């Protein structure tokens, strides 16, 4: 039997760093709280994040600031059509002095990798990255090398420019835990951006927690209590995306080609736990599930041509499903 009261007190105590970390990153980044929380939740639940938004929305700055606040290694890789897998994972180089081949590790050997404009790289490079994401290891020559712990990939893609790009196949997009839509700042936030970025000295982010504290928090997240009723609620949501007619959502049946995969069920549970943690709770509520449902499901529900013709977005389908499924 789980002692929920004791667990709740422990989580409340151990999650105090969250508000400090968000405040510290807030010195460098104006607004973008939603994106920032999802990146932190990805770190806490070992899930990779896909960020979609037009250029100039502080995606790189946010990621670098999070890495600095936790004292993590950070590498930014600009994906281009001429990029090779070896540019990412590394290669064998010949040492003329010794006459032997030596391993030169690529930029993927770090804690946080920013894959900038992932849809600009060809399929071979995308596959190399996605394999590393899934296996947490890479093979160079005859040797297999473990990647750093923690290891998080944050990929960005520009929704506007599609010419000369290699869109990620749906099966590969499914590897990302979150797909976050990054939007423009509000009017007052825009003014604050203007004031900060035209000042003489750019803000510097201080270290808030260390690697060990992050790993301890990650272990606590996995131990957060989730009731059977909430588990069933999660399964019902996923099932409704697969069999909408059975849930009284007949209008959605012609719009959904493929519903959420079992990975969606797992990630929705993990994300709900991480959301509870950053809110200082040791148990998951249905509100936690609702809060993360859009970011977990929007890239897992594949729409039909009919839905695309009607300009129906996956977010509107998720909204209908959440409104229909009874909350425990």
What does this structure look like?
Helices cover 45% and strands 15% of the residues. It has 328 residues and is an alpha/beta fold. The protein folds into two domains: 17-210, P-loop containing nucleotide triphosphate hydrolases (Rossmann fold, 3-Layer(aba) Sandwich); 224-324, Helicase, Ruva Protein, domain 3 (Orthogonal Bundle). Strands 2-5-8-1-9 form a five-stranded parallel beta sheet. It has a two-stranded antiparallel ribbon with strand order 3-4. Strands 6-7 form a two-stranded antiparallel sheet.
Task: Kindly summarize this structure in a few lines.
With 328 residues, the chain is of the alpha/beta class. The protein has helices at 4-14, 17-25, 33-45, 59-69, 85-89, 123-135, 170-173, 187-197, 211-222, 228-242, 262-278, 286-297, 305-309, 314-324, and strands spanning 49-52, 74-78, 90-95, 100-105, 112-116, 137-140, 143-146, 152-157, 178-181, 256-258, 302-303.
Estimated share of beta-strand residues: 5-15%
Predict the CATH topology of the largest domain.
Rossmann fold
Oligomeric composition of the shown chains: single chain
In total, the number of strands is 11
The Rg value, from CA coordinates, equals 21 Å
User: Briefly, what CATH class of the largest domain?
Assistant: Alpha Beta
Low-confidence stretches: none
Helical percentage: 40-55%
Overall shape: it is globular
Number of domains: 2
Structural class of the helices, strands and pairings?
alpha/beta
Number of helices: 14
Alpha-carbon distance between the termini?
Answer: 21 Å
Major beta sheet, specifics? 5 strands, parallel
What is the N-to-C succession of helices and strands?
Answer: HHHEHEHEEEHEEEHEHHHEHHEHH
Biggest sheet: strands side by side, in what order?
A: 2-5-8-1-9
């Amino acid at each position: 039997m789980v002692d929920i009261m004791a667990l709740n007190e422990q989580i409340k105590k151990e999650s105090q760093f969250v508000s400090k970390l968000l405040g510290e990153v807030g010195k460098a980044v104006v607004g973008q709280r939603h994106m920032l929380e999802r990146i932190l939740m990805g770190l806490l639940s070992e899930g990779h994040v896909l960020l979609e938004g037009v250029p100039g929305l502080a995606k790189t700055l946010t990621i670098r600031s999070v890495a600095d606040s936790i004292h993590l290694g950070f590498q930014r890789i600009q994906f281009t059509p001429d990029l090779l897998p070896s540019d990412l994972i590394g290669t064998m180089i010949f040492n003329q002095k010794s006459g032997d081949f030596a391993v030169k590790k690529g930029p993927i050997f770090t804690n946080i990798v920013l894959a900038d404009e992932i849809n600009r790289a060809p399929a071979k490079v995308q596959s190399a990255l996605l394999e590393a994401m899934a296996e947490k290891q890479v093979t160079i020559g005859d040797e297999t090398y473990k990647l750093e712990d923690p290891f998080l990939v944050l990929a960005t893609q520009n929704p506007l420019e599609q010419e000369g790009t290699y869109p990620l196949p749906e099966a590969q997009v499914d590897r990302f835990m979150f797909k976050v839509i990054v939007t423009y700042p509000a009017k007052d936030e825009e003014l604050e951006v203007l004031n900060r970025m035209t000042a003489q000295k750019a803000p510097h982010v201080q270290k808030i927690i260390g690697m060990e504290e992050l790993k301890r928090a990650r272990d606590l997240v996995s131990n957060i209590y989730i009731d059977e009723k909430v588990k069933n609620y999660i399964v019902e949501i996923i099932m409704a995306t697969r069999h909408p007619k059975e849930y009284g959502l007949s209008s959605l049946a012609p719009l959904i080609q493929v519903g959420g995969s079992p990975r969606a069920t797992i990630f929705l549970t993990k994300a709900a736990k991480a959301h509870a943690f950053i809110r200082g709770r040791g148990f998951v509520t249905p509100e936690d599930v609702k809060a993360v449902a859009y970011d977990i499901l929007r890239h897992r529900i594949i729409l039909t041509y009919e839905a695309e013709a009607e300009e129906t977005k996956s977010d509107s389908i998720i909204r209908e499903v959440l409104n229909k499924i009874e909350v425990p």
